[in-house]
Here is the input.
Amino acid sequence: MEQQKWDKALGHLKEVAEKSSWRDEALYQAAWCEKRKGDKPAAQKYYEQLLLNHLKSPFIDYATIELAELEFEVGELESAARRLEKLVELESPWGSSFISNNEIIVTEKSGKIKIVDILTNQIQEVDHQLDFVVHGQGGLLDIIHKDNIVWISYTEDRGNYKTSTSIARAELNKKKLVFKNIFQANPPIDSGYHFGSRLAIKDNYIYASAGERGQGMIAQDASKHPGSIIRVHLDGSIPNDNPKFEGKSDWLPEIYQIGIRNPQGMVLSAFDGKVYISNHGAKGGDWFGEVKKGENYGWKILGWGGKNYSGIPIGPKWKPGFTKAIQYWVPSIATSAITIYKGKEFEEWNGHALITSLKDKSLRKLIFNDLSNVREEIIFKNKIGRIRDIQVHPSNGKIYFLSQDALWLMQKK
Here is the structure.
């Protein structure tokens, strides 16, 4: 009987919220009713609606306080409803991609490519002939699959101790992958730092991040690849609408955006069709942002809020004329792989960004549909170690992570 009374009261409040000038109070009271009913996520939605649509309302302060309390309580409930499970142990895994509903292909930085059956936890090693080298942060990096083709980014041995972030493709074969290079970041550099590199596919294009190899201002030199976002066709040919052909004649033809430091997260959003990246700052200044054609994220003119490891300031966090990130982290959390969640298992997260981190060992959720009010939540921290990659199952929406030594599954209990 009491439940029916609350539902009846909520019905009246919803009518007022839709039609009356008392909308703000009605939303606030509706949230209060849901909270009394025990439906905290529903109350949270009413508070969010009030904050989003009525920024000058006298109820904002109350709603903000109540929402903060609810987010903590709801977060505790959601955490208790999730389960993390280690599936298999791996050696420094780096990139992963589903090749079927039951199989995920994984790179190990040290040079192996493996296929994991997520139903049986059986591992199959796949031969390949890549001319790679393990040097500092380099080795086998990201891998992505589509339509029976796989693409891989890796540290290529270019001779005389020099290496590059390179991309190769091969037809999927579970016994041996015969790769052919489709891109090399030039010039090759003698450095073990900042290779990037993540891959994302949009239509007939592959996007790749090429780190600036620790060379700083090379990221402002568009006659060189390091420190940029690359866009080429899936076969490696150059799109005729890349920036070089639309007013940036001094740019290399493969470059899509410049001013990047060491981006190790990249994903295509199924919701808005945009490509997003995460980027490692120096001592502070990590960020999450959108890939934007012909633009410049500013490294190393900008410091994004961070400093050199010596403690010397780099430059402003942002200034007009440069791309502005959606979210910054100072101090650094060491942002790694990202995804824009789409799935059934955690359907309440649909459209939200999931950010993994290495140093911070956390999974974070960003709600960024309103760029003036980006909201962040730590989903978990210090549970599975340093997180290198994240993948969402293509059918059921369960989430798979690569830590520094294993493949993990997160699902609801």
